[in-house]
């Protein structure tokens, strides 16, 4: 028998956005929930996100409302209710970078055609912004393209994590950085064991570890579900002279295809200098490229899509991140949040930061089917509290 035993109603493994959202919801419902993390909170996918609360707009740029676009369409309204303090979790103190993400097309005919068909498919979520109402980079007389406003806010993910951590800090714990042994009885998991020193017991177990779920599934000897990783090589740049920083921009740039050429979000580093974070097609096609070659491509791309703006001298770096998801045919992008239940074990991937509330709904429904009980547990101070990871903007340039 282990020397130290910790007990809970439910154990959630993985303190990214999915685990934190679920932990808040279950704790609010009166369950004794423990959220476990063997690294730092948000260290992987979550703090590599651009903070966009997608409403499906970028999935309908071909003029067709796909399943993915329709599934995620209700998420911005749900998040906004929380940001206003009237939703299921009070996020009113989260730093919102912008209430509306933008989308712009260049003067090319193909780019204008894509924006035209997208605007028809997304009439209620995509509004043309007339010249008189444009601001920032797009108020410049040199900008000759078309500009749209999307009903999609962009959040400071670091501040979002702090708000989700605060109410339940004492039950977000740092576990040893080792794969646990799973203790089973009658086909159900009863505990996670770390060596001979620690055992964590619960009625139910939920895996929200993102990419780390792959190793946990191996340790559980589960062949289903399988996980896929869709990689990105993101780019970051900032002005070398912080007295002449980049302007803030939160926008998709449209080309001739059905995906944005680039998605740019802006993030202040700890000195206040603005970092541009580039995703979209350039990050997908940049996988496996030499970073210097990809940076050279990005320099050319910025001049093509922002021809009216004179860029300051920039410092560049790249950042590799894997999007961890349930395996799909042809490694396609999943359409919705995913939960697979195996008796009292629930394997969960939100597939998008914006879908975390939907994932929590699905897990709570699965736990209700299992008839999880609310029971009393003593305060247990065996493990240290998990700590928040450093923002990407403050560490990416230090490679």
TrEMBL record:
Family annotation (InterPro entries): FAD-dep_OxRdtase, FAD/NAD-bd_sf
One GO MF term: oxidoreductase activity
Pfam families: DAO (PF01266)
Keyword Cell membrane in annotation: no
Keywords assigned by UniProt, alphabetized: Oxidoreductase
Protein's name in the database: Glycerol-3-phosphate dehydrogenase
Species name: Methylophaga nitratireducenticrescens
């Amino acid at each position: 028998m282990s020397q130290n035993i910790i007990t809970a109603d439910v154990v959630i493994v993985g303190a990214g956005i999915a685990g934190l959202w679920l932990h808040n919801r279950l704790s609010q419902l009166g369950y004794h929930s423990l959220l476990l993390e063997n690294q730092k909170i948000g260290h992987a996918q979550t703090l590599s996100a651009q903070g966009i609360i997608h409403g499906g707009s970028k999935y309908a740029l071909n003029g067709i409302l796909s399943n993915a676009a329709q599934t995620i369409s209700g998420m911005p309204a749900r998040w906004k209710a929380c940001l206003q303090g009237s939703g299921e979790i009070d996020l009113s103190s989260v730093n919102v970078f912008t209430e509306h993400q933008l989308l712009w097309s260049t003067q090319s005919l193909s780019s204008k055609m894509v924006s035209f068909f997208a605007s028809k498919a997304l009439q209620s979520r995509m509004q043309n912004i007339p010249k008189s109402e444009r601001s920032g980079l797009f108020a410049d007389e040199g900008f000759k393209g078309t500009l749209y406003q999307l009903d999609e806010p962009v959040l400071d993910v670091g501040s979002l994590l702090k708000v989700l951590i605060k109410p339940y800090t004492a039950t977000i714990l740092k576990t040893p950085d080792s794969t646990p042994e799973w203790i089973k009885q009658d086909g159900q998991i009863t505990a996670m064991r770390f060596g001979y020193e620690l055992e964590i017991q619960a009625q139910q177990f939920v895996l929200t570890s993102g990419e780390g779920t792959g190793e946990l599934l191996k340790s559980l000897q589960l062949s289903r579900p399988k996980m896929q990783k869709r990689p990105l090589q993101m780019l970051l740049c900032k002005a070398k002279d912080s007295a002449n920083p980049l302007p803030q921009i939160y926008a998709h740039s449209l080309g001739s295809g059905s995906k944005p050429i680039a998605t740019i979000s802006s993030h202040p580093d700890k000195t206040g200098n603005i970092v541009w974070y580039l995703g979209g097609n350039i990050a997908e096609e940049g996988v496996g490229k030499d970073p210097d070659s990809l940076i050279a491509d990005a320099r050319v791309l910025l001049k093509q899509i922002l021809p009216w703006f004179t860029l300051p001298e920039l410092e560049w770096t790249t950042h590799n991140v894997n999007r961890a998801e349930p395996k799909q045919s042809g490694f396609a992008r999943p359409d919705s949040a995913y939960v697979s239940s195996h008796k009292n074990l629930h394997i969960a991937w939100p597939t998008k930061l914006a879908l975390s509330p939907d994932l929590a709904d699905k897990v709570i429904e699965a736990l209700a089917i299992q008839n999880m009980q609310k029971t009393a547990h003593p305060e247990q101070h065996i493990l240290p509290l998990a700590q928040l990871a450093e923002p990407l903007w403050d560490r990416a340039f230090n490679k």
